Amino acid sequence: MTGPDVLDFILQHMMIADHYKSLRKDYIGNHDILSKDTHRGNRPDNRLIGNLAHYIVETFNGFFIGIPPKITLNNESDNKQLKQWNDTNSFQDKLSEISRQVDIYGRSIAFLYQNEDSETRVQYASPLSAFIIYDDTVEMKPIAFVNYYYINNKLNGQVITDEAKYALSDTFRMEDGEINQFGTVPAVEFFQNEDRQGILDNVQTLVDALDNTLSQKANQVEYFDNAYLAMLGVQLDEDEEGKPKLNLEGQQVIYSPDADATNARLEFLSKPDGDNMQENLIDRIINLVYQISMVSNLNDEAFAGNSSGVAMQYKLLPMRNLAMNKERKFTQSLRQLYKLLFSVGTVLSGSKQDAWQDLAFKFSQNIPANLADEATTAKNLEGIISKETQLSSLSIVDDPKEEIDRMEKEQSDSIKNSLEATGNLTDQQKAGMNNESETAEQEE
C-alpha cells in the first residue's frame, strides 16, 4: 500500500461520511425541515421537530449498555489487574459512547495507544473521520487504521499499519514513518450487524415525514386560529371618503354592504377541520418508527396497562432480539481488543498474552428489576450451580468474584468475633485470623 492509495481511501470515505453526517444531524435535532424553503406568503411557517431519532438511540443504548457489562478473568490476581485497567481508562464509559455511535452510524472504532508514561490507553474514534482498511482475504485482516481531519483545508491525522505510524498531510508518503510498538494494527471496529446499519438508517424518511406533518398541523392551527367575521348586508358608518369608520385592516373581517339588507348576516366563518386525519397520520408515523427500528415505545399506554412479567417480555421482545445480536458482535470485538491489549504486556503481570481467551463477558439488559423474584431464583439455585453463577443472577451484584470475597471475609470476621466473645479463641487462632485480615486489607 502506498501513500496515494491511502489518500484515495480517504476520498472514498469522505463520500461515505456524508451519509453519517445526515444521521448525526437527525440525532442532534438539526433536521432537514429547518433548512427547507416552506414559507408561503403570509402563512405561518412553523418548523417543528419531533426528534424520535434521538429518543430511540438513547432508549436502545440505555437498554443495551445502561448496566455496564461485566468483564472478568478466572484468575483472581489477573481479574483485579484487569478491573484496575478498566477503571483507570474509564473503559465502561467509553464503551457506552462506542455503543451510541454504533446505534447512530452502524459502526465505531476503538484503538489503543501509549501515553507519555508508556502506559497503554484506549480511546474511541468516530466513523465520521476514521476507518480501518482490511485485506481482501476471507479473514479480512486489518491493514491500516486511518484517523484524519482537515484544518484550513489542510489534511491532518495519522495512519497506523502493523509496522509503522505515519503523520498525514497533503504530501503524505509511506516512507516517513515511526515504528509501531504494538506490532499490529491497534484498532478494532465495533458494529451491530454485518451490513453496518444503525437503528436510524431505516427510519430517516419517517423522521422527516413526522417533522413535516407536525409543522403543517401547527401552521394550520395558527392560520385558522382567529376566525373570520363575515358582515354581509350590514351598512357601517362611513367617513367622508366613503370608507367604513371601523378599521378592518388586519382584523380578519369580511365586509360586504352590497348584499341584500333584508338578508344581512353577522357571523363567524367556521374553519376547515382536518385534525382527525392529521392525528391519524402522526400516530401511524410514530408507530412505524418504533416498529421498524425495533425499539419499544416505553411511553406507550400498553406498558402501564399491563405490568406482568410475561407481558413485559413480549413487548420488549423485538428490542431484546436486537440487543442480543448486538451483544454477540460486541463480544467478538471486545475479545479482539483485549487480545491486542494483552499482547503489549503492560496490563497483566507475567506472560499472559493468551489470557484474552479466558475472558468472560456478561451483558445485562437494563429493564426494571424485580429484586424479590431475583432473590427467590438465586435461593432456589443454591447447591445446583456454583456460587459465582448463583450470584450473577442478581442484578445488584456487579462483580460475583468480589462479592464472594466479601462474603468469606464477613464469615471469617463473624467467627472471630463469636470466639472472642465466648473467650474460646486460642492465641494461635488469633494470630491466624490477624494474618488473614492483614492479607485481605493488603489485597483491597
Walk me through the structure.
The chain is α+β, with helices and mostly antiparallel strands. Helices cover 46% and strands 16% of the residues. The chain contains twelve helices and 13 strands. The strands form four sheets. It has a five-stranded antiparallel sheet, covered by helices on one side. A hairpin with a 2-residue loop joins strand 5 and strand 6. Helix 2 crosses helix 4 and helix 5 packs antiparallel against helix 6. The model has no long low-confidence stretch (mean pLDDT 84).
Helix content: 40-55%
Total DSSP E strands: 13
Order of secondary-structure elements: HHEHHEEEEEEEEHEEEHHHEHHHH
Contiguous low-pLDDT stretches (5 residues minimum) are none
Give the mean pLDDT.
Answer: 84
State the distance separating the first and last CA atoms. Answer: 50 Å
Structural class, by secondary structure, is alpha+beta
* Approximate shape: flat
- Please outline the major beta sheet: 5 strands, antiparallel
Annotation field: number of helices: 12
Q: How would you write the strand order of the largest sheet?
A: 4-5-6-7-8
- Report the sheet-strand fraction: 15-25%
Cα gyration radius (Å): 33 Å
